[in-house]
Structures
1.
Amino acid sequence: MQSLCGRISNYFVTSSARRIADRRLLAGRSCSTSACVPEIAGYEGVADHGGLHGFSVAQTERFWGAVARSRLSWNSPFHTVHDCDLSQGKIRWFLGGKLNVSVNCLDRHACAFPNRVALIWERDEPGSEVKVTYRQLLELTCRLGNLFRRHGVKKGDCVTLYMPTCPLAVASMLACARIGAAHNVVFAGFSAEALADRIRDAQSSMVITVNQGVRGGKVAELKKTVDVAVQSCPSVKQVFVALRTENPVGMTSRDALLEEELQKEDVVCEPAAMDSEDVLFLLYTSGSTGKPKGLVHTQAGYLLYALLTHKYVFNYHDGDVFGCVADIGWITGHTYTVYGPLANGGTTVLFESTPVYPDPGRYWEMVQRLKINQFYGAPTAIRLLLKYGDQWVQKYDRSSLKILGSVGEPINTEAWEWYHRVVGGGRCSVVDTWWQTETGGICIAPRPSDPDAVIVPGMAMRPFFGIKPVLMDKEGAVLSTNDTSGALCIAQPWPGMARTIHNDHQRFTETYCQPYRGYFFTGDGAYRCKEGYYQIIGRLDDVINVSGHRIGTAELEDVVNRCRWVAESAVIGYTHDIKGQGVYAFVVLKKEVDVQEADLVQHLKDMVSKSIAKYACPDFIQFVPRLPKTRSGKIMRRVLRKVVEHDVDGLGDLSTLEDPATVQEVIQGHHHLFSKTHQQ
Ligand code: WT7
């Protein structure tokens, strides 16, 4: 341990000195709320949330410059806070600065409090949690970093992770950061084809996986899926396999057992000094075309934004146990299971299971056992648990809980109320947090604010520091009044935002910067109420949100259209009780089909599972003789949406339809399918 501390002391000295300076600043002011940012406490007009927020957007350089200097440990200081031009898609923060993300997440804490628990791995098997201290996590990360280096991973390379949420996955992410490689975590529920697409696009030479995953008591063959995927990925030279179960796994000359290899490695690994704008990770997400986008996040700005939002939105304090139950395969897992909590020196829970395994009390039994202080989950799980009844919650002691967070989709009032009243016993603030893979961290949430500021159920409400939301009308003009809805944009850059789409900067600027030139377009619609608070309405593009996971309708149509019996298709989202949105596919068959409809439905669902993931499978497949189209041949999705929402009175203007009879056909077929389903 001595040697470790010796190597990292440089970083530690600067950060501890600054922490003392922070405390001095704090002592002299009456900043008692969590919203108080001591670095700027001396400036005028920053006594309350409104003042702080106003300062952060008006004096961007002073705000972000001050927090970046005091909260991150730098190898060399930045000379320019930012250099951005949103209209060109040019976003650069903390230029000239050098730092290492893993040092910021590990070394400085491992030196200050080596035995503090960094990770609590809540394994699928209830009651078998594993705790990992900062010292242990640093050592594991260093061994991994050395292993990756020895196998030729260099600065600028990309390592793909296909793993469940577990300490080795977190350490692998941090090991990449340590040696300057990018990571590309692929959600372990994705199919071999989807995994292969992402490995190829990222040009990864190394993949890390486990022999088998375990979730909800079921085994998933992750290594076998990797085997299939890498067959079509010539870039992959090495696959490391960790053992999550005791079952044997077939190995090839390309594979090696991770734990065995790690034993050979040293526990000290020199961190690479990275430029602020070097790539930290790629994360793929669906857009409105068939091809998922590899969003690129960089080092300093992302980390600082993760750190600050985690601290203030959740009012995180030293010693708190933070429980974000998202999988690390999604951005929520990246920012609020890994980077935010660790950058703050916190204790973070890695949840490997499901909300209903072994029973619907799982979350709350875990809260009791691990004494979780902040719980961060998804509305879809809350809606599901609500249906099982209050007794599953009330059985357990939840007195440790202080804040309850929600993310991924709008939370309906009933779910919000239940979360607040039953789960939180009316004592905890519920924070509905709006953000995206693209934004890197939370942009709109009820906190930070004075702890007793009002929170409106089902509303994300207030922009975070540095975030300036605007609503646009259809013509692209800024809507300046309240009590109005429009396309949600963000008027100026912030450090946590994605910098580009891997290998496709043009798509980045076209998607986010050009629809409303000079503004960042989120793809969501929002309402600003009389009091000026924001409520997110939902996507404005052809992206469906199933249980908080994005899936593009074009991606689904591409798969369905590949079936040799399918002539064409149109996929849309519809309101679903539990999942938020479900997938509904309209399919036109070719003439000469001699397969039973039921078999065809199954076949199409299998195709989607195989090509994308199980969660993306259509809930309904309706065969139609033709699709409603305009005279210019465009599918009228609006009409299809109205039909499945049973709003035939709201069909609107049908004058551009080529043949109005198609609408009746679709309505009749829909009724038929629905009555059939309800009889089953
Ligand atoms: C899309 C982003 C951000 C992490 C999880 C999803 C929707 C997200 C909320 C919320 C209403 C929300 C939006 C957004 N969304 N949070 N609190 N209220 N909608 O990340 O996969 O990048 O999806 O999720 O539509 O654009 P993602």
2.
Amino acid sequence: MSAMHKLLISSIIVVATVASAVDLTASDALPPEAKQERDQRMAWWREARFGMFIHWGLYAVPAGTWQGKQIPSIGEWIMNTGKIPVSDYEQLTAQFNPVKFNADQWVAIAKKAGMRYIVITSKHHDGFAMFHSKASPYNIYDATPFKRDPLKELAAACKKQGIRLGFYYSQCQDWHHPGGEACGGHWDKAQDGSFDHYLSTVAIPQVKEILTNYPLSVLWWDTPTGAMTHERSAKLAALLKLRPGLITNDRLGGGFPGDTNTPEQFIPATGYPGRDWETCMTLNDTWGFKSYDTNWKSTETLIHNLADIASKGGNYLLNVGPTAEGQIPAASVERLAAVGRWMAVNGPSIYGTSASPFKKLPWGRATQQPGKLFLHVFAWPEDGNLLVPGLKNRVTAAYLLADTDKTALPVTASEKGPTIKLPAEAPDKIDSVVVLEIQNKPDVEPQLLTQTQAGLVELTAGEAVLHGDSLHCQGGGAGENIGFWTNPKDWASWEFQIDKPGKFDVQLTFACEPGSAGSEYEVTLADEKLSTKGLRLRKRVVMTQPGQKLSGKVESTGGWDKFVDIKLGTITISQSGRQTLSVKPTKMPHGAVMNLQSIVLKPVKL
Ligand code: FHN
């Protein structure tokens, strides 16, 4: 995908996310719902944790190549990136005859992977409906030689094999029907028209059709632009009544929050506490099939992602892009089967679990169910001793999930937490699960960040404590940063333990677009100790020496995603102990402070 596309798509998602913070209630369209009712409605989805996303449409025919040229975008965007005229793209219908499509086989692939639901594109941005629509003849039944409704067949197969079904529907972007939105603007006169007309003649009738004619559990909206005002979005939201119990995502637009947050292609550092969320992700680098995209994720990455997501309380919606003949690529099938083998043994550590009580674990992840902790050991300890840092509960049993005999593993308690004696060989090289049965709810002493071997203190966005409502951690992996810093009263802080005191250079990694440059901020470091004061024993944090302050001014780095490192100054930490570092804006002349990726304290070599 080009940088431009990424930018466009992320700004559309931002519209959806920011809009969801607006105080609008979906109750204009749907009756209010009690927590208990909502919990009941969401129960199967929370239990499922793992689903299959399917991007399948006309774009599978060109498969990334147009008139002999490879088009540099995700497969399903070929019409937009290649600026293909509507009448030329339409010609693909004659070649779309997916005779190898077998709904039962697709569902079996998902089930064998351990997936509990499927979400398939019923209409993507190219405007082509993959179901038999009466609202537009531009659909697979009426416009192709296939003359079948694959989504009807899929619904029947899902019912037969006991798996939930959801449809993706591109309600706003439609590059075929006049008036539909197009990111980057229309490139063909045939696309021009009234958006309201498009909504009332295509989107609304088609959404009615899918909600009425298919047994949907999920409706997955996508890419609302500014055109999706509250009033327009409400017309679509009102249709959701047609399918009681339906779950929808946060991409309708118009301030409708939906039921689920939808981080795309990344795993949020801390999940979204208090919200249901689902990371959608490609198996290679495209959603729709591209014949030459072979950048497949390894089975190890997929299993680690699944455990990581479950450990943060989310679902994993993993995409496949079937071919124009109707087959899921063999490379996808192989990987899904491998994940399925792992799930067949370790499913109980994923299904119906909730987020880890540990902020971070040095050897992997954890999930939990009442009375049980599932320790996902990615890095099997060489000496066989697995310390569970900070766990205060009494462990009543410990065994490997892979061991059906539940052979007891020895547990030794210490101040640092219990240590489990593991066998020399990991039962699974990628992720072996140790079950701890515990009394009461997990009680974990928060673990402080510590210095690395080389004495560095790495304070990353994901580790920060965020104070305020606007700023939050965004992006994923190495690109994770504190963004949406639009309120100058908001600030961030980190607590950490110093065991190797000394002088440190303070390095800040941040980004800022030109129009927002000029904010000023202070970085304050204070050492703290715990004291007990007052009548009752209460922990209280007090400063033991005046804080050290460095100040900085945010320069433009060229864009919100152009991160640069700067040295802010030097600080001295004269003794071992607990420290708190905070970053607080002092001036914000424009709309935002910065995107802050990390602060690193580097020991100064004397
Ligand atoms: O533009 C689409 C893209 O093609 C794909 O469908 C993804 C899946 O989440 N959603 C949009 C980008 O956010």
